[in-house]
């Protein structure tokens, strides 16, 4: 028994994670339900490091040094429970099960509780970066006990991505489900980022009249500034790609119906439960859903829209600059909303999550990695109790500078009939937060009228009800 770590579940993610551990000098026990995958891994990549191939669960567990560290990389949901049921009886107190799949944090909380009774550490761990990241350094978001992190942390730090300043993109996020919760919100923010980029693309295409190749160049330029990020970079790559079969821009031959696996939806569902307004992420999830309703879209194709007015060259260039402002301002809002959800989750479940540390570990390896995250970290480092990212002086100033263009872009979108739910939701959130008065006062009046739900007054303490059906006098409730 000499492997420092074991990986079970050797599809793309598990296989690459096992190789990453081995390349970093660890002896890795490998196992998969279907043994063919295990042997294929060792045959193909055995030269990269020290692997111990195990055919059975017993062999696998026996190959691990104590306390055992066992990584599960299988399909989230029932397969994860099946694997835990198979391995847990073979483990001893002090051993660690690390679930690197995309589990729902509520499942992680349940599994952690059940295994804790047996003295086993269950470490629900968010891993972002896709196959590439798993192999070369992902962003890693482990939850679970402090003790387990003491044992696992150094190994995770070694295999993780490194930010530009060299620090590893991993931190102990918090107890039980904290890691998977943060991974979930990461994915929600990823949905919002992608939606905003999509809207920017469509505006540049439909309103400014640019071709995909020209838009690719615009994104490349943006990627050298404050929008510098992995998603902007790959957007330029996708937009400049030409389909070999037709010679057309690749983006024009792909069916425009976006799919989703569920983490974005979870982010919104949980936000609804926590009462956190993540309107930008919600719009991104709904936009994907709308795109998939092919029959509904077909039936709606004849509906009236405005007559589009083509832009001249210099007008288009100025418009592109405005879109950059709108995209940046909307991005600040979606991160504001995402971090609000993490803060609310942390509060609800007692996780004590360090928001600056979260921003810090997203700087490398993960899909939403961006220069921008350095500034979010700086904002929380300067003021850990920041009520919202919008209260940060730098972000506040940047939005103040962007807002005129942001509004102009939305006006152009509305005038030209280009759907921009992400930009619009972000601006509405911003305007609602800064508003002196909201129509919520009217809502309270309506609720009191039809349901005697009572209201509070601006000038006195207490709850009140107006006798709407009677003489309309006010009573204390
Ligand atoms: P998949 O999610 O496609 O899962 C395939 C693996 O699960 C195979 O090893 C398969 O074994 C195993 N498995 C299944 Br299915 N049911 C099982 C069962 N009842 N008992 C034991 N093993 C079972 O693999 P993946 O795409 O590598 O992703 C792994 C995890 O990482 C998932 O939770 C995913 O959500 C997460 N993740 C993926 C990405 C990504 O970019 N793909 C990124 C971040 C996180 P078999 O070979 O015997 O069928």
Can you tell me the overall shape?
Answer: globular
> Strand content of the residues, in percent?
5-15%
Uncertain residue ranges: none
**How far is it from the N-terminal to the C-terminal residue, by CA?**
70 Å
Q: Specify the helix fraction band.
A: 55-70%
Summed up, the helix count is: 20
N-to-C order of helices and strands: EHEHEHEHEHEHEHHHHHHHHHHHHHHEEE
Q: Calculate the mean pLDDT score and round it.
A: 97
Number of strands: 10
What would you call the structural class?
Answer: alpha/beta
Distinct small-molecule ligands in the complex: nicotinamide 8-bromo-adenine dinucleotide phosphate
Strand order, sheet with most strands: 3-2-1-4-5-6-7
Largest sheet: 7 strands, mixed
- Rg calc: 25 Å
Describe the overall structure.
The longest helix is centred in the last third of the chain and has 37 residues, at 313-349. The chain starts with a strand and ends with a strand. The protein is an alpha/beta fold. It is globular, with a radius of gyration of 25 Å. The strands form two sheets. Strands 3-2-1-4-5-6-7 form a seven-stranded mixed β-sheet, sandwiched between helices. It contains 20 helices and ten strands. The chain is 56% helix and 9% strand. The protein has helices at 12-23, 35-45, 57-62, 78-87, 105-116, 130-136, 146-159, 178-206, 212-222, 230-240, 250-253, 263-274, 279-292, 294-300, 313-349, 355-361, 372-382, 393-416, 421-434, 440-451; strands at 5-8, 27-31, 50-53, 69-72, 96-99, 121-128, 139-142, 455-456, 463-466, 474-476. The protein binds nicotinamide 8-bromo-adenine dinucleotide phosphate. The site of nicotinamide 8-bromo-adenine dinucleotide phosphate has 22 residues, from helix 1, helix 4 and helix 6.
């Amino acid at each position: 028994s000499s492997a420092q770590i074991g990986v079970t579940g050797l599809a793309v993610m598990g296989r690459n994670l096992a190789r990453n551990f081995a390349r970093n000098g660890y002896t890795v026990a490998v196992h998969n339900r279907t043994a063919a995958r295990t042997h294929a891994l060792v045959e193909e990549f055995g030269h990269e490091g020290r692997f111990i191939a195990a055919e059975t669960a017993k062999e696998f567990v026996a190959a691990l040094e104590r306390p055992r560290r066992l990584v599960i990389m299988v399909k989230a949901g029932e397969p994860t429970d099946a694997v835990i049921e198979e391995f847990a009886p073979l483990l001893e107190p002090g051993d660690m099960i690390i679930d690197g799949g995309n589990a729902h944090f509520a499942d992680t909380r349940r599994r952690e509780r059940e295994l804790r009774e047996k003295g086993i550490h269950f470490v629900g761990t968010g891993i972002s970066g896709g196959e590439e990241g798993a192999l070369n350094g992902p962003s890693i978001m482990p939850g679970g006990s402090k003790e387990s992190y003491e044992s696992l942390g150094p190994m995770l730090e070694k295999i993780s991505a490194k930010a530009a300043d060299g620090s590893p993109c991993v931190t102990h996020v918090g107890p039980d489900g904290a890691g998977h919760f943060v991974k979930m919100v990461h994915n929600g923010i990823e949905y919002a980022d992608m939606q905003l980029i999509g809207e920017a693309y469509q505006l540049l295409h439909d309103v400014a009249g640019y071709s995909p190749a020209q838009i690719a160049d615009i994104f490349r330029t943006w990627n050298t500034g404050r929008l510098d990020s992995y998603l902007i970079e790959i957007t330029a790559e996708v937009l400049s790609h030409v389909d070999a079969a037709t010679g057309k821009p690749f983006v024009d031959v792909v069916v425009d119906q976006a799919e989703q696996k569920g983490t974005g939806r979870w982010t919104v569902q949980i936000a609804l439960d926590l009462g956190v307004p993540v309107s930008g992420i919600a719009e991104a999830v709904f936009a994907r859903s709308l795109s998939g309703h092919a029959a509904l879209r077909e039936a709606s194709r004849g509906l009236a829209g405005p007559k589009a007015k083509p832009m001249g060259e210099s007008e288009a260039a100025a418009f592109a600059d405005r879109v950059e402002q709108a995209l940046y301002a909307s991005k600040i809002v979606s991160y504001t909303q995402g971090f609000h959800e993490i803060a609310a989750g942390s509060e609800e479940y007692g996780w004590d999550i360090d928001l600056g540390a979260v921003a810090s570990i997203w700087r490398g390896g993960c899909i939403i990695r961006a220069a921008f995250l350095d500034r979010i970290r700086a904002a929380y480092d300067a003021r850990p109790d920041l009520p919202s990212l919008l209260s940060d002086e730098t972000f506040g100033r940047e939005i103040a500078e962007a807002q005129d263009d942001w509004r102009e872009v939305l006006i152009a979108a509305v005038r030209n009939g280009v759907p921009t739910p992400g930009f619009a939701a972000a601006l509405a959130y911003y305007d609602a937060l800064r508003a002196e008065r909201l129509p919520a006062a009217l809502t309270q009046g309506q609720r009191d009228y039809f349901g005697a739900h009572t209201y509070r007054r601006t000038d006195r303490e207490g709850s009140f009800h107006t006798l709407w059906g009677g003489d309309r006098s006010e009573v204390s409730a």
